[in-house]
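Need the bound structure for pyridoxal-5'-phosphate, inputs here:
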Amino acid sequence: MDKSFKTFLKHTAKDFHNHSVNPPVVRASTIIFKSMNDIRRTQAKYKRDPRGGYFDYGRQGTSTTHILSKILTRLEESYHVFLTPTGFGAVFLAIFSIVRPGDEILTADPVYNPHDLNSIKKNITKKTPGSNTFEFQDLSKIISIAKKNKILTAIDNTWATPYFFKPIKLGFDMAIVSATKYYSGHSDVMGGSLAVNKKVFKHVEKAQKITGLRLGPDDAYLITRGLRTLDVRLDKHEENAKKVAAFLSKNKKIKLLYPYKKGSFNYKMWKKYYSGASGLMGIKIKTKNKNSVIKFVNSLKLFGYGYSWGGFESLALHQGKSERGNRKYLNLDNDERLVRLHIGLEDPKDLIEDLRKSLKFVR
Ligand SMILES: Cc1ncc(COP(=O)(O)O)c(C=O)c1O
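Answer from helper R.:
Posting the output first, comments after.
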């Protein structure tokens, strides 16, 4: 990431009109105009430039959502970014915009929440790396096969965010990020973003209008505020996660699912596309004693137990069948257990000490 983008994140969207560093929350269903002519002028401007922030009704958003979309469009280096109320809303919008009856969706085995996608069965949706198991796929190869066969592609880039990897630049048609995670960064807001190239823009624009999938201005404000420190937080998540990974990799019972150094799991494929790694990692623990793994997880003091991730705090989850989903190619032996850790912004020394004490329970 070039330095100028870090600076851009701190300096963008100042509101000199209201003299506030952050743009105000503009809540509106009715967008009010001074005259009927004024409405028509705005509608004509929208027609000429649908990405330009011209609204005649609140379902299209307000200046608060427009600002967030502009910042993310720059981060993604995409044609446009649509905003949705959740990350899953962005997945739905991508599919609804493109897929027609009789079409098929090809998904990677570790796609997030496969239970739900299986029931939807000419697109490839990707989640990289795999949720919980962290497989990295050869993305250029997938894109080139898809292009040859006139298949559109979408990727869920929540783990890395476009700070570490820019899918639209590589050639994906659509890129989803759950803004619930690192964009907002404080575990108190939900949102989603769908970055698109020019080819699919019109389809998604139409679908968003029909479905009314709109991010509220209060949530957009919080996500914009979170984004100010996206680079600083992600750099630190990575630094902390690498320290924790180095510690965990010394444990013979543990196989680390995190590309933290040369030779580590999936490092080559990660390095081919990503400039950094975030704070979410998987660990496989080899033991016949499942309960001892549960005891390890339950004994952690600095890791919260809860779904989601991408906030400032560390989290842990023992991955049962319900979290893993109906995987066909899950590489898990009978005597292996899966634990997911989100490494937060605490002092890594404290996190390592917590893990050290609790790992004693693994038998
Ligand atoms: C990788 C990934 N993608 C998408 C989502 C869905 O995002 P949201 O919870 O904002 O709907 C999640 C949620 O956990 C996720 O982990």
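Comments: The two ends are 43 Å apart (CA to CA). Residues 86-88, 112, 127, 131, 156, 158, 178, 180, 190, 192, 308 surround pyridoxal-5'-phosphate (CB under 6 Å).
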